Amino acid sequence: MSPPFALTLCALALGPSALGLGQAAPDFSATALDGRRVSLGEAVRSHRAVVVLFLSTVCPYARYFADHVSDLDRTYGPKGVLFVGVNSNQFETAEETIESARDHDYAFPIIRDQGASIADLFGAGRTPEAFLLDAEGKLRYRGWVRSKLLSPDLQRGLDAVLAGKPVRVAETKAFGCTIDRPKLPR
Amino acid sequence: MSGQAPRTALMGIAAAAGLLAAPTPSLGQAWLPPKGEASFNLVYQYQRAPWHTSSTGERLDRGLMEWNYVMADLGYSISDRLAVRVAVPFVLSKYTGTFPHRMNGNVVRADNGSQHGTLQDLRVEARFMATSGSLIVTPFVTGGFPTVKYETMGHASPGRGLWEVGTGVNLGRRLDPFLPNAYAQGRYAITIAEKVVGRPHNRSNASLDLGYFLTSALTLRASVAGQMTHGGLRAPQDTSNPANLLFHDRLVREDYFGVGTGVSYALTGSTDVFVSGFKQLSGRNGVLSSTLAFGIAQNFSPAQIIRKKRRSPPSTEP
User: Looking at CB atoms within 10 Å, which of A28, B177, B208, B281 has the fewest?
Assistant: First the structure.
């Protein structure tokens, strides 16, 4: 793996635990696949909201919603929202993730989460699965990007957070593919 | 929003769909899962028919018929617009009563009071989602082919043992903004069945299905469904004719109307369990039955499974 794509994760990941609504998200920093340095703590301080989105290049639902995610980024980026993509699947490579990001025209940073440490920090289990943090870094929405009826719940969460209102549907059951974590040593 | 308009294809809204609408498991929905998504459903269905019906709709007590189905159903989305499914039911049937069918004076096997099990008909279906706007229009073709030669004479015969092909259309629509998190699906199908002694007995089926996502994991459903057979034998005018004795069970002009309800729950992001019931309220030339079904639906990505299998040893990248 070439250095620009290397992940340097600085997180205290002791194991998977779900991040609860209203809780402050754990800080992490990593180098994204495009070379950008991403620090969640700094991102929260400098943006009105941050969406940490667990992605996959293979999962049908993650691929299906890719264009919608790209649209959300374009729409809400200028409004002070940062999208951070995370690919935690162990069977996927950085090259595939870069290619997929290019195909879907993703403009936001994407982190290759080797070891699935970030997924563990957030308690993410699926792709796609979104975690919406407000300007204080607190979790305001977690779950699917859109529902099975295409209800845009992440987008509604973003609108509510930006308007300073409560998120009406704050937690949904993400569907899609299971995140492939490292096999535990026997 | 900029960019591509949101596509409205989705989403395997529960494997239970279709089960409510027919006395035996059927297939069909308006929404399709995305390309590369597969599903495996395992369904148990109990059907109980205490009444026969005449051509005028009169209820006749001719004994109790019971069918137990176990159906394995595999589906795959070839693209975001094209999905295929195949299903094979195993049927266990039983007749209890004092009016069994007889042949040469002997009670036929299906009606001898014992349980009889067999594989039934292989069912295949292809659906094409033609529109992706607010109204989903999904035409489909179906086929049914007996997998084995089973008994077709008897109140509790496992099936008709005939090939059949069908076509029709599913319509689906979200009901927001009027009723957020709800949807309606309509279905019409015309089925051309293999003729018996040169007589046609094709049928039309129609259903309307309303669903409501009570929570992100819990879905409630209600449906109405009906069938009208075009051709076939009337009961008892035609079925009591000794000349029709051998094949009348395969050829009856069965019509019915019924209502159903169901609930499904997402155990995980890829596993749903469901239970549903359907009751035929009225009918002609057939039976009136009640059906209870429950099952589990597992969605998966074959591509992801293959990639995991091929997964190389842990990388040494930093």
Answer: B177
